Amino acid sequence: MLHQLNVADGEEVASPSKFMPPNGKPYALNLFNNIIYTHTGSGCGGNPNVAYVYDLAAKKVGSWGPAGGGMWGRTGPAISANGTMYTGTADGRWDPENGIYGNGIVGLKPDPKTKMLLLEDYYGPSNAEWLVKRDLDMQVTPAIFNYKGKELMVDAGKECRVYLMDTRVDWRRQSSHAAASQSAALQRRGQLRVGGHLGIDGQLGRLQRHALGADADLGTQAFRVQGPAGIRQGDLRRHRGVQGVREERQAAVDAGVESRSSCL
């Protein structure tokens, strides 16, 4: 149930409304133009992982699911100026031809008449299958900002690769092979170490050609990105694979060493 409260005294200002199934795990409730946006992960309560919107004026719910995988951005989805919500999906296969969007980035927008949540755009990394096998999720909340008249979005994941996108460009028409080629070139120069830490020798601007439609010159001082010195758990996962990690976690649960706390 969705409760609307007066922040001054905590009193309810409207009757509770049905919004999402019980015992799910939504990440943040983000309000934009009188519409609440959120998404879920972990499959808690036996519920599928789904993105939701609630129109406060029409009192209608819209939803959309990636047909596999969860949406893990802890501060919920990012919302563009035209009301499109963007989020990364993870832990699922990427097969858009068959309606499966489990490991990439999706843009979803409420229909102004029916209030249904519709797939507006999407992008899948060229190495999506490799990412799934190694549990390298697209699991952060994107950031949207304006730069020189363009609305840009930046997103990332456990692979430590940064994606810079123009929200006005149809990503489905973009070739992900160009991004992969640029990443490979950066790796050869020792500027980007995928799977270790993000060290782009300073500037996100150098990933400009990796971006999808974001051809604005960000300049060498636009951003400075520096990741941690290393990701130990990521190193372990690359050697053991996701299945090995899952088997170890299950063994820990069975032995009583670890509890299923992700849905608490």
Defining key terms:
globular; 264 residues; alpha+beta; four-stranded antiparallel β-sheet; 15 strands
Structure described in brief:
The protein has 264 residues and is α+β, with helices and mostly antiparallel strands. The chain is built from three helices and 15 strands. 16% of the residues lie in helices and 24% in strands.
How would you characterize this protein structure?
The protein has 264 residues and is α+β, with helices and mostly antiparallel strands. It has one domain. Helices cover 16% and strands 24% of the residues. It is built from three helices and 15 strands. It has helices spanning 128-133, 176-188, 232-254; strands spanning 30-32, 35-39, 51-55, 60-64, 78-79, 85-88, 94-95, 100-101, 105-110, 117-123, 143-147, 150-155, 163-166, 199-203, 224-226. The strands form five sheets. The chain has a four-stranded antiparallel beta sheet with strand order 1-2-3-4, with no helix packed on it. A hairpin with a 2-residue loop joins strand 11 and strand 12 (150-155). The radius of gyration is 20 Å and the shape is globular. The two termini are 18 Å apart. Mean pLDDT is 75; it is low at 175-183, 189-212, 215-243 and 256-260.
